[in-house]
From TrEMBL:
PROSITE patterns: THIOREDOXIN_2. It holds the Pfam family AhpC-TSA. It comes from Paraperlucidibaca baekdonensis. Residues 119-280 form the Thioredoxin domain. Keywords: Membrane, Transmembrane, Transmembrane helix. This is Peroxiredoxin. The chain crosses the membrane at residues 7-29, 35-53, 65-82, 88-105. The lineage of its organism: Bacteria, Pseudomonadati, Pseudomonadota, Gammaproteobacteria, Moraxellales.
Length: 284
């Protein structure tokens, strides 16, 4: 299923780009009253949504995004009204503006139920190995000598992951005041991890999970979850589902967020609240 999703998201991005360029070409020739104006709007609306994810630090969106397919349906009314005998203008607008967003919102964004007894509050974090930004191998036990925030993210290519890390960086001083160690983990190459680490001037720690061994041990691996084509940029086809954990000294889990929708991420204040509720590193 993940591999099908991988193909879908890459194909949909391609269809949106093709829809924008082709409709622009037809509008340039036929004028603004062409039925292809519907395809233009149906492609630009979701295209602008995805562009915003990449250009602005957006760590989460609303769950339903019902406005997107609604706008697509309205856009599809243009060719249906202006040229009912040109079915391809209508069909392409419906695909880009209604079907595509509906699949993205209701199917692609969701992981399904993530029941994971291993990562339940009160459980001890399983042992696993990681590689730090300098190439040194460390264990989860080495990183569990105090309160630790563990964030498993998909990679530099994921805009919501990058925005979530940026939020943590903005609130790092509050976490540091509570004595929290911040560990950010992905399966991407050490080169990509080092590149990401250089973007932040706070001492968060970045780690590589070789062969997704840690994600597999924790039961958070999405096999084939990388959008098709990004393998060419050196990313692994298998990625972790976004996961946030907090452990006390010794590795007991006091907070676990296993989001079932990659667009819904916990805010840093949720981390602080969990740490304070557990009586760990309270600040006056």
């Amino acid at each position: 299923m993940n591999r099908l999703k991988s193909v879908f998201i890459s194909l949909y991005m391609t269809l949106l780009a093709a829809g924008i360029f082709y409709s622009a070409f037809r509008i340039a020739i036929e004028g603004p009253t062409t039925p292809w104006m519907g395809l233009a709007i149906a492609s630009i609306v979701p295209g602008a949504f995805f562009m915003r994810l990449f250009l602005a630090p957006v760590a989460r969106t609303s769950e339903r995004l019902s406005w997107m397919p609604l706008m697509g349906f309205i856009a599809a009314c243009i060719p249906a009204t202006l040229a009912p005998n040109q079915p391809w203008a209508l069909i392409s607008a419906l695909i880009n503006g209604v079907l595509g967003p509906a699949l993205y919102i209701r199917w692609y964004s969701r992981f399904g139920t993530r029941d994971n007894a291993t990562l339940a509050t009160g459980k001890r974090l399983p042992r696993f190995d990681l590689v730090d930004a300098s190439g040194r191998r460390v264990t989860s036990k080495d990183l569990s000598k105090g309160t630790t925030l563990w964030l498993f993210f998909r990679g530099n290519w994921c805009p919501l992951c990058m925005a979530q890390i940026q939020e943590i960086a903005w609130d790092y001083q509050e976490l540091a005041a509570r004595g929290v160690r911040v560990c950010l983990i992905s399966p991407q190459s050490e080169k990509n991890t080092q590149k990401l680490a250089k973007q932040f001037d706070v001492p968060m720690e970045f780690f590589t999970d070789p062969n997704n061994a840690a994600a597999t041990a924790l039961g958070i691996l999405a096999k084939g979850g990388l959008p098709a084509g990004l393998q060419a940029l050196g990313y692994d086809s298998d990625v972790p589902m976004p996961t946030a954990l907090i452990t006390r000294a010794g590795g007991e889990i006091i907070y676990s967020d296993l989001t079932e929708n990659y667009r819904l991420r916990p805010e840093p204040q949720a981390f602080m609240a969990a740490i304070d509720a557990a009586g760990l590193g309270n600040v006056s």
